[in-house]
Give the backbone structure.
Amino acid sequence: MVEFAIYSIGIGACVFAILSVAVRDIFHSAVWLSLTLLCVSGLYFSLNAPFLGVIQVLVYIGGIITLFIFAIKLTARIGDKTIAQTNNQVLISLLASVVFFVFLLSAILRHPWGRLATVKELPLKELGQSLLTNYMLPFEFLSLILLAVMVGAIVIGKVKK
Amino acid sequence: MVNVAHLIPLFPFLAFWVNILLGKTLHRASAWISIIASLISMVLSISTAQGFLAGAGSYPLGTWLTFFGQPIAFGVIVDPLTVMMLLVVTVVATLIMIYSVGYMGGDPHFSRYFAYMSLFTASMLGLVLADNLLMLYIFWEGVGLCSYLLIAFWFERPAAARAGLKAFLTTRIGDTGLLLGIFLLFAATGSLSFTDLSKANGPEWMLMAAALLIFSGAVGKSAQFPLHVWLPDAMEGPTAVSALIHAATMVAAGVYLVARCFVLFAAHPVCLEVVAVMGGISALMAASIASVNNDIKKVLAYSTISQLGLMMLGLGVGGYSAGTFHLMTHAFFKALLFLCAGSIIHGVHTQDIRLMGGLFYRMKTTGITFVIGTLAIAGVPPLSGFWSKDEILAQAFGPHPVLFITALLTSFLTAFYMARLMLLVLFGKSRSELQTHESPVTMRFPLVVLSFFALFAGLLGSPWMHHAFQKFLAFQVPYPSEEAPSKFVMGLSIGVSLLGIGLAYSIYILHRRFLPEGIRAQFGWLYRLLMNKYYIDEIYEAVFVQPFLRLCRLSFRFDMAAIDGVVNGIANLVRRAGGILRRLQSGFVQNYLLIQTIGVLIVIMTLLGKLCFQF
Amino acid sequence: MIPVHFLLEVSAVLFCAGIYGVLTRRNVIGILISIELILNAANLNLVLFDRYWGSTDGLGQIFALFIVAIAAAGSVVGLVLVIAIYRNGKSIFTDKFNLLKW
């Protein structure tokens, strides 16, 4: 049952991801991306990492995708049907990514991964503790980065009089 | 005793920088900066002279560089020769700068002129203070540069620019010889210091060749035959420049160099012979040209060549003190004559003596000083030129009959052409409607001071003062003997001088014809030969300049066709290749990214080749 | 029971789809979307291996968390840039931004 769910969600993620890069309309692309992210979040749940799954939904779908849609709507002309949405290196890019994929696949299949028994969830409390003890420094740096991004976004986005 | 000699060139050098950098703002004041700097140098020179008399001597300043294990020290040489040169240079330079205030008055490049003059003074003082040949060479080139800059001072006139170039290139030939001589001397003896010259030992032929090459530098700088051609053309520069550089100081640097290296020459009689013979040729040739030339400055220029030749001759016959004595007196009276000429040119605005005449009565100061200068150079006793010329004649008298006759003939011609110049310019009737006026006081003052020197400087070396000057100078080479200037030589010398003056007087004032018309006509070729300066310029033009220009044109064509062809071909190749490769640089981010991705793929596949595509 | 290689393959698909998108989209927002795909592929792998090797302090998850945060920050900056560029040039197509091209 769980396995079936994993397979279906995984295939869904793949399909939605391919759709999100393949569709013409950038707005649709954002919608397909949000579905992909949702599927990935499902995979996190199946891997017993519920915190990350929740974060995925909150930050990505709640934050980033919303931002994307805002940006798409602000730059109005982009969705215009008459404008080409891809450049002239589609074929070679497709070839490159397919070759890359085949390469990755061959690498993955060479290793006998076996199957992972359902693992126990890492309690959120422990996660938080290691975040604030062992990984304190990167955590604080991250907060600095977010601050810088905030300031930078305001400065760049401000309309210059 | 504080050694101040090394500070002497410093002040004119500073004045140069001040004037060249601030010339636009200073304008008129730049003259006074140069003059004050020269005055400080003069005071320092006098104090150096006093120090020398009190017993101070040369001193080192430090080691400049080490060369093949041989340290090349730089230092200051203080000996009679240097002391004399210091005094002459500073006095003459200061006077000529004062003169220039009036002479260059209206010139738009006033401050540039004084900057160059200061640089020249600094270089010249450095030259006489240098205690080794390498240092001397540096300042030697420095005075050469200033000479070039000042000859071509009015560079907007093509003739001046050409004359500057000619002077520079002609002296370059000699300078190259000098440099080679310095190399050779260093190779032979391992030292360039003047004090080591007396004990120089090395392969005989090397020392001899070095001496001759050094002499070639002197030939170039002192405008001796065959490199004399630049000096008459150098008269394109301002007359005050001619007085300072091309009469009193720089051209005397060649004589100074020979005197400075006299022990080297003296060790090889052949070298002395060469010096004497070249000096004699120059002296006689230039004197003969001067006798027919009609340009007041050119006459003086040829006279300078002739007098320098006489100095060389004096040195060459072993008269170390005679040559240097004449160098000093010549500096004064020739500077005086040039300044008088400048004053006259300033007054009448022409250089052609055929258009002048009767100026004596309208330019009193200039006229009187000019007469003094003429009598001094003509060798009328007791003026300065007489004593020094007499010394040279006396030195040549005994063992060198041919050179003695040459010198005597030169003296005669000198008296003749100078008297001719003086009589045509100053006396007789005015031959044209020239407006004349006496020059301003800044110009007259140096004339008076210099004529004082022209009158009395010679007495220092006269028998009346027991040859004090010669004994003072005779430092490395002892002065021969008291009775060397015999009464006979002295009488002969006075005789030819008076004969020359008398001949000029009878021809140009009394208009007497000595030779019948037929004979005169037959000697027309001689006159033409002299008027054309023995065709030396034309010969050089045909033998050196034209073939060289042809070679240049050939090289130019070769360069255009072959070298440029290859270079442009390569450039074209690169440009075409670039044109093709440019497409890679599309300026299009995703294109770069695609290439990058493919690159990463290739790298990974190469590194992990075993993993690739093996299911 | 979790099929490990299947999840790795899903991650590979996401990754390659992202690469394709980055290389072909003319639209800057499309490129940002593709970048999010690539980052998610990486995150999925991180979480999977965290579980697979049974880490005790959840290093893989924390790493993934950081990536999510930084990806969010990156998107914000990217989108602000998009808006600024759009305001200046009335275009957000990458092939129009060739000012630096010689």
